[in-house]
Amino acid sequence: MQDIPKHVQYFENLLGKENTKSDKLHKLAYSYDATREEREPDIVLFPRDENEISKILFYCNAHKIPIVPRGAGSGFTGGSIVAQGGVVLALEKYMNKILELDQKNLIVRVQPGVINKDLQNFVESHGLFYPPDPASENQSTIGGNVSENAGGMRAAKYGITKDYVMAVRAVLPNGDIIRAGKKTIKDVAGYNIAGILIASEGTLAVITEITLKLLSKPILKRSAMGVFDTIESAMNAVYKTMASGVTPVAMEFLDNLSIRAVEQKFHKGLPMEAGAILITEVDGNLPEEITYQLAKIEEKFKENGCVDFKVAKDSKEGEDLWFARRNVSQSISVYGKKKLNEDITVPRANLPLLLAEIDKVSKKYGFKIPCFGHTGDGNVHTNVMVEDLNDLEKGHQAITEIFKIAVDLEGTLSGEHGIGLAKAPFMNLAFSPEEMQLFRSIKQAFDPNNILNPNKMGL
Amino acid sequence: MQDIPKHVQYFENLLGKENTKSDKLHKLAYSYDATREEREPDIVLFPRDENEISKILFYCNAHKIPIVPRGAGSGFTGGSIVAQGGVVLALEKYMNKILELDQKNLIVRVQPGVINKDLQNFVESHGLFYPPDPASENQSTIGGNVSENAGGMRAAKYGITKDYVMAVRAVLPNGDIIRAGKKTIKDVAGYNIAGILIASEGTLAVITEITLKLLSKPILKRSAMGVFDTIESAMNAVYKTMASGVTPVAMEFLDNLSIRAVEQKFHKGLPMEAGAILITEVDGNLPEEITYQLAKIEEKFKENGCVDFKVAKDSKEGEDLWFARRNVSQSISVYGKKKLNEDITVPRANLPLLLAEIDKVSKKYGFKIPCFGHTGDGNVHTNVMVEDLNDLEKGHQAITEIFKIAVDLEGTLSGEHGIGLAKAPFMNLAFSPEEMQLFRSIKQAFDPNNILNPNKMGL
């Protein structure tokens, strides 16, 4: 980036020195996300409101300065780090307020920098419920969640971020401020701009305000765990349960490698020989609903080879059942220095085939590939564990094969992490040249000078 | 349109004479929709498959021929009629097949010309459930439903068409065939193209295949009706019930004028003096769920001035309760020769204010304005009844005021009917010049020669 001192001067005049940073410490602090890749911006800006964002974008557009909106920087694909210098627009410092709770309409209006878990806690204190719960919920922001269309454990029943976004305010790259969507359940006037901004990874506009749908908080919930001898039987149980007329809140799995890793670290008495465990939760307002759902799940599990089914007696036991799932990600590091983790997703009925194919990749390349994740919606976190860093290239070959398998099984490169920089090279596995051209045309329609988060998503 | 014989010749070579029509009868048959406006196309084409559609679009694009995709022609805003000559692409003749029922994943894949009710019946015969049920369900096609983002009575609990579209195949104006979305619940790779095609009214691409999410069919349902002395108390009951922790499948209302119209025509013993009635339905898999929901609704209704609450004993009585709602649209014609009907939508808690303001418009202009509709999601069908056709202009002024009221109450011009030609003049009430410019940029990205359904949506 050229003329940095000149641009810094402009931004200092606009935002104040305290909100315009180009020192080494700030550049470092805003250079990374959960990919652990480091790319330093030239300038970090802390806008206080939408009007400042509009002026910043207008200026960057006029000077063709790349600019990347950023929440907590907890993403897994490099969505919030610069590709090659430029400005980071840091939204977590000031743009972090819950603006309105509309209990009459079950709606909350927030700024993008609000942390997911803070929002959940806030609305639950009013008897309401915001279901999307990405594993990063304690760090990640709603703006980031919307930009990546974050999922989470409760997606099996409650869907993902896009199912809760009713409206947004946003600033276009030219500085224009727009509203999109409404506080109404139905709205068919004009193109669905909010819909295309979701999962656009900050490449089309900077979202400055988000209106979210809330639900009433269910009164009761109960967890259960099923143990299976083989992963195939567990995967069969998943899709047959989900098609049985009950919809559990969550339906998570750990494969044998994942179970062993957690057990070795925490000694919780997990079934070390099991092919897989499924951990599930149901909710409702009536005890009868809970009983009915658990009975149906037990029936479907046992029809499909479940050798042990345990229902948590209370919330304490429920938390114990969930312990393995919540601690699996850190535990599997025992299998290798470098973890290449992906979040492919397939239609649920293809899960048995997917896991069988991943096993073949593991054997072919000689890597352990522990798998766990959100099987209730077909989303599997695959982790190619590389022990010898000289094998990294081979690890990436294994990942490429896994992506191909997922796409062949009518699945997607990413269920919830996004594309960003990390998966950009694989976009051509999933999309035709015509489809990529359409993406570029849309990018061009919003951002003709290509200043907003450039070089992401393979565009 | 120029050179019609030349174009007819080309299309006859491509599709055969039997699928290329430019005679008066066909032009007339494809000139109207439910707006009753008549605009004749120059040519009507009946493509047999996606490849033919691709070739037709390529040709139209090269010759800048306007082309309008059409399903059943049952829309309320002119979305499927030509603005000014050109080609109608009639999809109901051949592109009307259910291609795949995937019971393992609760998914169905259809061509755009499948009639909504046929799809509902088909999946219900397999114990599955496709909730969107627009009033036009016996005529309207899934392609039209997707293009207008159709709602229906069950939207209060089950959402609208967009909540069920997982993926589409479509042909771009240049003839490129694209896929968008996946058979997976989560998919965040690439821009949400399926999301922006929904409700785009056939202005961006021709949808050739639609993959829809299904649910398991709930085992039980029960209907109930509440009678209220005033419309205000009924509207308060609506939003307080919807925020109470139960979510009825439907929560429909008729105001006093609507009740009287049905009663005068059908003599069903409706409460002629009531300010409004609310008709509701709950569903579930357990009797306890039904009882719980009905008790909560009764409690909320009675807290808000319900003077009579009746639960249907069986499905026969349930049908009787729904009779008034199903027959209100035809009944209100007693109030005037010309019905100017709109489908404004507001956040539910603003319904009492909305209905009060509509009453003022009624008094100011001297028109009867019977209102009914989907209050469970804030969607009100307002009907300005014009007796003397010399008063039509005044009727349109009343409609304009109603649109302004809806927008001022954080609502939308259209909850489910779309914009098309009919509401195009009102787009500037709802959108800023910057927002309209963004719509035009998106249109341009998909359709640079503006051949696809031009002059719709105020673009």
Automatic annotation (TrEMBL), chains A, B:
It comes from the Bacteria. SUPFAM superfamilies: FAD-binding/transporter-associated domain-like, FAD-linked oxidases, C-terminal domain. Transmembrane segments: none annotated. InterPro entries: FAD-bd_oxidored_4_C, FAD-bd_PCMH, FAD-bd_PCMH-like_sf, FAD-bd_PCMH_sub2, FAD-linked_Oxase-like_C, FAD-linked_OxidoTrans_Type4, Oxid_FAD_bind_N, Vanillyl_alc_oxidase_C-sub2. The keyword Ribosomal protein does not apply. The keyword Flavoprotein applies. It comes from Helicobacter aurati. Keywords: FAD, Flavoprotein, Oxidoreductase. This is FAD-binding protein. Its cofactor is FAD. PANTHER family: GLYCOLATE OXIDASE SUBUNIT GLCD. GO terms for molecular function: FAD binding; oxidoreductase activity.
